[in-house]
Design brief:
CATH architecture of the largest domain: 3-Layer(aba) Sandwich
Catalytic activity: a 2'-deoxyadenosine in DNA + S-adenosyl-L-methionine = an N(6)-methyl-2'-deoxyadenosine in DNA + S-adenosyl-L-homocysteine + H(+)
Distance between the termini: 38 Å
CATH topology of the largest domain: Rossmann fold
Protein name: Site-specific DNA-methyltransferase (adenine-specific)
Largest sheet: 7 strands, mixed
Strand order of the largest sheet: 3-2-1-4-5-7-6
Number of strands: 7
EC number: 2.1.1.72
Oligomer: single chain
GO molecular function: S-adenosyl-L-methionine binding; sequence-specific DNA binding; site-specific DNA-methyltransferase (adenine-specific) activity
CATH superfamily of the largest domain: Vaccinia Virus protein VP39
Family: Belongs to the N(4)/N(6)-methyltransferase family.
Radius of gyration: 19 Å
Length: 285
C-alpha cells in the first residue's frame, strides 16, 4: 500500500445523528483542497465524516465525557481496551448487560473504574442496548434497556486497531470541552464541521445525549459562533434539522441553507425512523 493511501475507516459506535447516510452530500459542500485545512469537529459523535476524510491534522471534541474516553482509549490504550471488550463479549447476556449498565448508579464505585474500563463499558452498552441509543436521564445515568440481540457485534478488533493507528500517526487532538471553547484557535487555515444535537422536531426525535440537553439558547449560541467564524474568515459547515426555528436562526447574509434528506435509523419511537428533512448551512459563499 502507498504510504499516503488511506485505509477505509468507519465509526466504531452506533450514534444518533450519525452521518454515514449523508457523507456524499456533505462532501459536495466542503471547501476545495480540504486536505490542506486543519479539521475541527466540536460535536464528534461517531465521527463518520472525520473517519471518511482522515485529516492529517484535526481537533475533535465532544461534551460527552464518556464518549471521549472511547477515542482516547483507542489512541492510548488499545490493548487493554480490546482485552476488556473481549471479556464483555464472553459474558454478554441480559443479566450481565444490566450489571454493567448499572455501574454508574454508585458514584463511588463508578469513579474507581479506570478511563479505559469506562470506555469499554460504553462501547459494550452501545452495541448491546436497544437500537444503539445513547440516552441518559436527568441524573446523567445511562438508562437504555437491553437490546435482546442474541449475537451482537460488540467490537471489530481490526477496525479499532486501524483507528488507533490513524489517531497515532497523525496530529489529532482529542478534547472534552464546550463546543465554543473547542474552536477558539481556528483560523483561515481551518475548516469546522458542526454537527450538534439537532433542534427537536418532536418529542421522539432523539436528543438525550446529555442530562442537561441542548436547548434553543445553545442553538443560538452556536449560530453566533458561526457568525464570529465567518467574520474571521473560518469556513464552517453545519448540519441540523430543517425546522422553522433553524431557518429563522440562520436567515442572515453570511449563510447559505441547503436542504437535504437523510434516513434516520435511531429513534426512541420506531415510527419516527425513516426519511427526515435536514439542512446543511455554510458560512461562506
Amino acid at each position: 500500500m502507498n504510504k499516503d493511501e488511506k485505509i477505509t475507516l468507519k465509526p466504531y459506535l452506533k450514534w444518533a445523528g450519525g452521518k454515514r447516510q449523508l457523507l456524499a452530500e456533505i462532501k459536495n459542500h466542503l471547501p476545495g483542497n480540504i486536505d490542506k485545512y486543519t479539521y475541527y469537529e466540536p460535536f464528534i459523535g461517531a465521527g463518520a465524516l472525520f473517519f471518511e476524510l482522515q485529516p492529517k491534522r484535526a481537533i475533535i471534541n465532544d461534551f460527552n465525557a464518556q464518549l471521549i474516553l472511547t477515542y482516547r482509549a483507542i489512541k492510548e490504550n488499545i490493548e487493554q481496551l480490546i482485552e476488556l471488550l473481549r471479556t464483555h463479549r464472553e459474558n454478554n447476556d441480559k443479566e450481565y448487560y444490566y450489571k454493567i449498565r448499572n455501574l454508574d448508579r454508585n458514584t463511588d464505585e463508578f469513579n474507581k473504574l479506570t478511563d479505559t474500563e469506562k470506555a469499554a463499558r460504553l462501547i459494550f452498552l452501545n452495541k448491546t442496548c436497544f437500537n444503539g441509543l445513547y440516552r441518559v436521564n436527568s441524573q446523567g445515568l445511562f438508562n437504555v434497556p437491553h437490546g435482546k440481540n442474541k449475537n451482537p457485534a460488540i467490537y471489530d478488533e481490526t477496525l479499532l486497531r486501524q483507528i488507533g493507528n490513524y489517531l497515532n500517526s497523525n496530529d489529532i487532538t482529542i478534547l472534552n470541552t464546550d463546543f465554543e471553547q473547542a474552536v477558539t484557535n481556528a483560523d483561515t487555515n481551518s475548516f469546522i464541521y458542526f454537527d450538534p444535537p439537532y433542534h427537536r422536531l418532536d418529542k421522539t426525535s432523539f436528543t438525550g445525549y446529555q442530562a442537561d440537553g441542548f436547548l434553543e439558547t445553545e442553538q443560538e449560541r452556536l449560530r453566533n459562533v458561526m457568525i464570529t467564524m465567518a467574520e474571521r474568515g473560518v469556513k464552517c459547515l453545519l448540519s441540523n434539522s430543517d425546522t422553522e426555528f433553524i431557518r429563522g436562526l440562520y436567515a442572515h447574509g453570511y449563510f447559505e441553507i441547503i436542504p437535504v434528506s437523510a434516513r434516520r435509523l435511531i429513534n426512541a419511537d420506531s415510527g419516527g425512523r425513516g426519511a427526515v428533512n435536514e439542512v446543511l448551512i455554510k458560512n461562506w459563499k
